[in-house]
Specification:
Structural class: alpha/beta
CATH topology: Aspartate Aminotransferase, domain 2
Largest sheet: 5 strands, mixed
Distance between the termini: 44 Å
Radius of gyration: 17 Å
Strand content: 15-25%
Order of helices and strands: HEHEHEEEEEHH
CATH architecture: 3-Layer(aba) Sandwich
CATH superfamily: Type I PLP-dependent aspartate aminotransferase-like (Major domain)
CATH class: Alpha Beta
Number of helices: 5
Number of domains: 1
Strand order of the largest sheet: 1-7-6-5-4
Helix content: 25-40%
Length: about 200
């Protein structure tokens, strides 16, 4: 089985478990969020001030205007003015919300703790194909070897490894759902992000 086949198999299992028509595995949740923000061409948004530092860092990197909300959450929260949910601390059966992008994390301490990796859950076939290509250097995965492809849209090297997908297959096969718990993040309104 090729690395791409292993990743596809995990994505299919994840989609079935969450009730999403499609799932795209990435190398981390932050990059899953980034791909969705890029795809949506988000110019401005609001989100909870109590989240992981990589979220505002990504906004800074992409030049997105953002504001913090005093909003509590358990398992996931909406990035307002987008269709993107940061679902980094949630993995439940049939959790998928139609019409949205839901970004998962498989990092340490997350529900499916592979150690690294993330995913995007979605339901639109065209968006799936576009985001899949973005995740994998702009490649059309029906063309092999890749050198035969002559036209590429801008893509990003955010593909997971075969080891992460393989671990995901094993862990999801044995996964026991647990209610998400509140996780205390610091209030990001108390920090300053400086440009280099």
């Amino acid at each position: 089985m090729s690395s791409f086949d292993t990743i596809l198999k995990f994505e299919k299992m994840l989609a079935e478990y969450t009730g999403a028509p499609y799932a795209i595995m990435t190398d981390c949740c932050t990059h899953a969020v980034e791909l969705c923000l890029r795809y949506e061409k988000t110019a401005s948004c609001k989100f909870t001030a109590h989240t992981y530092l990589s979220v505002p860092m990504t906004m800074q990197k992409l030049g997105i205007r953002y504001a913090y909300l005093d909003e509590g959450w358990v398992g996931e929260y909406l990035i307002h003015n987008t269709r993107i949910w940061d679902s980094a601390r949630l993995l439940t059966p049939y959790m998928y919300r139609r019409g949205f992008f839901q970004c998962l994390s498989f990092g340490i301490g997350k529900p499916l703790s592979i150690g690294r990796g993330g995913a995007i859950l979605l339901d639109n076939k065209d968006e799936y194909q576009d985001l899949l290509a973005m995740r994998y250097d702009g490649r059309d995965l029906t063309i092999s070897p890749w050198e035969q492809q002559k036209v590429f849209k801008v893509g990003y090297h955010y593909r997971p490894t075969i080891e992460e997908a393989g671990a995901g297959l094993i862990m999801l096969s044995n996964y026991s759902y647990a209610e998400p718990k509140y996780h205390q993040y610091p209030d990001l309104r108390n920090i300053t992000i400086m440009e280099n």
